[in-house]
Write a structure and sequence with these properties.
The chain has helices spanning 2-5, 23-32, 83-92, 116-121, 132-136, 214-224, and strands spanning 14-15, 33-40, 74-75, 99-104, 143-149, 154-159, 171-174, 182-184, 189-194, 200-206. The chain has 237 residues and is an alpha+beta fold. It has one domain (2-224): Jelly Rolls (Sandwich). The strands form 2 sheets. Strands 1, 2, 3, 4, 5, 8 and 10 form a 7-stranded antiparallel beta sheet that branches. It is globular. Residues 131-137 and 230-237 have low confidence and may be disordered.
């Protein structure tokens, strides 16, 4: 996967275009979060657009659709340039959805604290599994993280409450190492930071909760879970 990743240049990663109306947040995300899409409803992965919540971006992309007009997830044109990576991804998920090669730039890159459950409740289809009763119980689209390039100052954070609304809430931080695959619990508020001098590159893949290949992985992850939110040791940051 690294051999395939290294064929790309910095210019092949595209700044994040967010639907957030706050200009400072939009500028921060564009400067610090770059990516391209390997699997998507879009035919071209040469973008990093939040097209779900930014309706004015729909006309900038072409989409994979079936005969009835339904949007379907397939490898993008840039994704087809990573055949070994795609083979591995389809070995752990039979029907992966939006899948990005996501880069956080050095010395910062933190996102806003957010919860995918709250986004799903607002109608974001990326995380809504289509069952409101299950959503009420916190069942949302799982997120898979596969670290490819990182440094010791990269952390994934998680908190039960929004840290800005409740500054006293406990924040737990975990470092993901290359060679690991993480099922990330995005139900809770979470964030990512890169305070190192090198970029962080993860594969970030959304997978349906009932995917037959992923389900045994989820069951194993739940069975082995030992922390309040993240397995393993946590650190204060």
């Amino acid at each position: 996967m690294l051999r395939e990743l290294f064929q790309f240049q910095e210019s092949d990663f595209y700044p994040y275009i967010t639907g957030n109306t706050n200009p400072d947040i939009a500028k921060h995300m564009a400067e610090n979060w770059h990516a391209f899409c390997m699997i998507d409803t879009c035919k071209s992965g040469r973008h990093n657009i939040d097209y779900i919540t930014t309706t004015n971006n729909f006309d900038k992309l072409e989409y994979h659709q079936d005969e009835s007009g339904k949007y379907i997830y397939r490898p993008t044109d840039i994704g087809m340039e990573l055949p070994a990576t795609l083979k591995y991804l389809y070995s752990i998920a039979s029907s992966p959805e939006k899948t990005r090669m996501s880069k956080i730039m050095p010395n910062g890159g933190n996102a806003t604290w957010h919860s995918h459950k709250l986004l799903a409740e607002k109608g974001d289809d990326r995380f809504d599994i289509g069952n409101r009763e299950k959503l009420a119980h916190g069942i949302i689209t799982p997120v898979i993280h596969i670290p490819l390039i990182t440094n010791k100052d990269v952390w994934m954070g998680i908190s039960e409450k929004h840290p800005k609304a409740d500054p006293d809430t406990t924040k737990f931080w975990k470092h993901y190492n290359p060679g690991e695959v993480w099922v990330f619990n995005s139900y809770y508020f979470h964030n990512a930071v890169n305070n190192g001098k090198n970029s962080r590159v993860h594969i970030m893949m959304y997978v349906p909760i009932d995917d037959p290949l992923l389900m045994p992985i989820l069951e194993k992850a739940v069975a082995e879970y030992q922390g309040p939110f993240l397995s393993g040791n946590t650190v204060s940051y």
